[in-house]
Amino acid sequence: MSFLRTTRTFSTLRCTATRKFTTTRLLALKVDSNFISQITAAEKALTNSDEPVKGGPTAKAQSHVGQELSAAIVSDITAGEKVITNSDEPVQGGPTSVAQSALVGGHVRDVGGEKNTSNSSKILSDLSQNSSAASANANSSAGEHTGKLDSSTLSKITDAEKKLTGQDGAVQGGPTAQAQKHANEPITSQALHDITEGEKKITGGERVKGGPTSTAQSELARSRAN
């Protein structure tokens, strides 16, 4: 009888160990068509356009097709989102939010029904460090006038547009939209012309003192004075 009890106990332990082993899973998420479609859907919600923005989150994600999702890739997608929003803060439910959720969720281990979040903590730490580095870079250049339609200048143009429209959202085809076409490019006469055309769409044909065009011209003048 003692031998039978020992045999049953060993058998039970072996089955339990087998069950725990088979329920252990590690999900390594890759940048595939399904992931990119989610990023694209989140981008469309921001732009109300079926066409992805050049250098935007979808474009950034597509540049990493086939790679395992990482904090560095999420940072690239965040940079793409900034091209659209002109803000250092990711939009709730936007492309960055989607990527972060996929990254953290895709690396959580489930052992016997209990979640081991050590990998998630490391990933969140990496994301925090990348975000801090990006903020530091933004702060270091905040007082510089580059003469380009960078995120700082685009933000000022957007603010000038908001003062004209009284709305938080940029007008389709307006000065912000026209400036975004030339994102990170030098402020050229062509860029200024496009911004002016966008401003006229809002004002009914007149340029306004202190408006989007004047803002861009001021940034260009300050860059030349540096």
From TrEMBL:
It comes from the Eukaryota. Residues 109-152, 166-226 are annotated as: Disordered. Residues 115-129, 175-191, 212-226 have a biased composition (Polar residues). Residues 194-209 have a biased composition (Basic and acidic residues). Residues 130-142 have a biased composition (Low complexity). This is SMP domain-containing protein. It comes from Leptosphaeria maculans (strain JN3 / isolate v23.1.3 / race Av1-4-5-6-7-8) (Blackleg fungus).
